[in-house]
Amino acid sequence: MRLLRSTDLALRVLMRLAVTDGSSPTTREVAEDMDVPYTHAAKVVAELQHMGLLDARRGRGGGLSLTDKGRTASVGAVVRSFEGEGDVVECEGATPCPLNTACRLRGALRRAQEAFYGSLDPLTVGDMVAAPTGPLLLEIGRASQGRS
User: Fold this and answer.
1) What is the C-alpha separation between 125 and 129, in angstroms, rounded?
2) Alpha-carbon Rg of the chain, whole angstroms?
């Protein structure tokens, strides 16, 4: 299974915000830190804000900050939200699979997908930034501040 770019970025943004040392980076700064286009980061930030996982404040003194809900969010729930509830394969699309009525693969893939999500469910964003990841994320942020 391959995650969408937006799912990957959402997890990295949450992790980055989980280790901010009192600062509130802007969406533009986070995009630069993660080396992604600003427009893509802005869409992901808007969705995370809609989910209640981060706060975004505009203007002078504004920036992004992780909410309590964001810090304790299940990684599995975040992935499900961004990936959607669809099947791994499309069996009933524009050209339905001729095996659809008697196929065992679809059920096996659904179980595999749920096992994947299930393995991520107990992990929180806070868990993901434990050492050595958290300190490295802080260094990335400091390095990008030096470039500005």
Assistant:
1) 7
2) 18
Residue 147's SS3 state is: helix
CA–CA separation, 12 and 147 (whole Å): 20
List, in sequence order, every residue forming a beta bridge with 65; answer none if it has no partner: 55
Phi first, then psi, for residue 65 (nearest 5°) are: -145, 145
User: The whole model's pTM is what?
Assistant: 0.84
CA gap 85, 113 in Å, rounded: 10
**Closest by CA position to 15, among listed 64, 85, 87:** 64
For residue 56, give every residue at least 6 positions away whose Cβ sits within 8 Å of its Cβ, in sequence order, or none. 27, 45, 46, 49, 62, 63, 64
pLDDT tens digit sequence for 45-95:
999 999 999 999 987 878 999 999 999 999 999 999 999 877 777 777 778
Nearest-angstrom CA–CA distance, 11 and 142: 20
C-alpha 113: how far from chain center: 17
Helix (H) or strand (E) holding 56: strand 54-57
